[in-house]
Design a protein that fits this description.
Length: 362
């Protein structure tokens, strides 16, 4: 059974006003004081962000329990210094980001300028174990058409700097301003993958391998494929669904590779269009069908994804839970729809944030 780990970035906010608060260093100090050996929480690019990483899990229920526990622990540590955490992929309210003290982050700011200061965005990265770099690259080549579907499913960033953006996942539009971000061409082999990374670093445009911000990549430190397209999800249950589908996609891709089936290649240009469509509309309108790259209703595309990974879901015992979770998201909506619903109900972006704090913690 492939193991799965999740990294979530959370927004630190004032519990009363909803304004982002640059208190990550204080939250991390509090966590380290209470548990000197903790390896769960980390700082991120800005002081208004807090990241946690689960341990690798083979059971999805256990992964869900750990995500909930980590969110509650983050909320507890934040509460002790007068702030709160929200699973929001962008801040609905206006904010001036505070760069964390870090040589690497300073390099980013000096190298890339304004796009760095726009990167107060919170994502969800899913790590799925692979047996080798060769298997991992074969998986990357076969995942590509399905990643926009995960983008649409997880979309949770309709607001930016106090305004409605018209996008379901505006985080992804901000993120794609990095020069190395977005979909990739097929790599073909582990040797070609690593050669490309080496050439990218040698160009001087990126600092190191960690700045190859592909939608999916090999992890530099663990034997995993890291899938990076998802917004942090308002609901922990949606985060578990994303992780479940990621594992099933990896397993399906690996089986196709072992069976000698070629990787589909719709081309990077069409993948960019599919990704934009997913970010713009989420689940509210058509997505581009990963098989033919033609518009199809989002519900049909999600069910096609379930069909594509059905054998892998059956093998891991996740089929029924995944199918129910997909139907629930189609019924209730993703985080973007829920944030818009809250704004329509309350008329206040501040109330949207405070309600999202409550849902993150509970």
């Amino acid at each position: 059974m492939r193991t799965v780990g999740v990294e979530e970035e959370l927004l630190l906010v004032d519990p009363d006003s909803g304004d982002p608060k640059a208190l990550a260093a204080a939250v991390l100090a509090r966590a380290a004081h209470e548990d000197p050996g903790q390896d769960v929480f980390e700082k991120e690019l800005f002081g208004q962000m807090l990241e946690f990483a689960t341990h690798p899990q083979s059971d999805m229920a256990a992964l869900g329990d750990e995500i909930v526990r980590c969110r509650k622990e983050a909320a507890r540590h934040a509460g002790q210094i007068g702030c709160a955490v929200a699973a929001l992929a962008t801040s609905p309210l206006a904010v001036s980001p505070s760069l964390s003290v870090n040589e690497r982050y300073q390099w980013l700011a000096e190298r890339y300028g304004i796009p760095t200061w726009d990167q107060l965005v919170c994502g969800c990265h899913v790590h799925v174990s692979v047996e080798s770099d060769e298997e991992g690259v074969a998986v990357l080549d076969r995942l590509r058409p399905w990643l926009p579907v995960l983008r649409a499913l997880s979309a949770n960033s309709p607001f930016w700097q106090g305004r409605s953006t018209g996008y379901a996942s505006y985080r992804s539009r901000v993120w794609n301003r990095w020069p190395s971000a977005g979909p990739t061409e097929p790599f073909g082999s582990a040797e070609r993958y690593h050669r490309l990374i080496t050439r990218m670093v040698a160009s001087g445009v990126i600092l190191d391998e960690g700045m190859a911000y592909f939608d999916a990549r090999l992890c530099a430190h663990y034997p995993t494929v890291e899938i990076r397209v998802a917004d942090v999800c308002l609901s922990a249950e949606t985060a578990v669904l994303i992780a479940t589908l990621c594992r099933a996609l990896v397993e399906t891709a690996a089986r196709d590779w072992r069976a000698g089936r070629p990787a589909p290649d719709p081309g990077v240009s069409l993948l960019r269009l599919a990704d934009w469509q997913a970010a713009r509309f989420g689940l509210e309108q058509d997505l581009l069908d990963p098989v033919g790259m033609r518009p199809r209703p989002a519900a049909e595309v999600l069910r096609s994804l379930l069909e594509h990974v059905a054998d892998a879901l059956d093998g891991s015992g996740d089929a029924v839970r995944a199918e129910r979770a997909v139907e629930e998201v189609l019924r209730v909506g993703n985080g973007a729809r829920e944030q818009r619903r809250l704004l329509e109900h309350t008329g206040s972006l501040r109330d949207v944030v405070t309600e999202c704090v409550r849902r993150t913690q509970g």
